[in-house]
């Protein structure tokens, strides 16, 4: 069986963006979040990412967020300032996008290449290796995945409904509605796969290979 030629980089549908620094997509994600407000703290960015980005792209740690902020500040795309609490002891650092940062992220949105999404689906990998799996356990794995997809669908639905009340979040709410449909499809595909596994079992195709 012939295998497709492997690539180290994801497939691109168009030529790469040539203007500005070659930042990772996670940097643009953080910079883009900052474009929605005058100032945000690292905690705010983490909360916003968990509210929206995690459904389709990224659920960052605090260390990742602060690493990206440091990188963006180095390029002059972000400024920061320390803000003390009322007691004058505790404090936090607030971050704001600069004019050049807004221009750069807008350029990325409009002119970066359209890359093929990278799918890393561990449940499908385990099913692909189903000849090594116990049939009952494989069905359990897929059932757990269906339950997970339903939980994510409900959360995305709730967040989309909350965003619909704010006109400033029109585009994020549209993406959240896409996420709802995505997790609905995940459940449907997994159920279809369970049906396929049932057919394999009837034919004896699910028997494990022995060493």
UniProtKB/TrEMBL annotation:
Q: Where is the Transcription regulator PadR N-terminal domain?
A: 30-106
**Residue ranges of the region described as Disordered:** 1-20
Where does the signal sequence lie?
none
Extract the Pfam families matched here.
Answer: PadR
What is the name attached to this protein's record? PadR family transcriptional regulator
What organism does the UniProt record list as the source? Nocardia mexicana
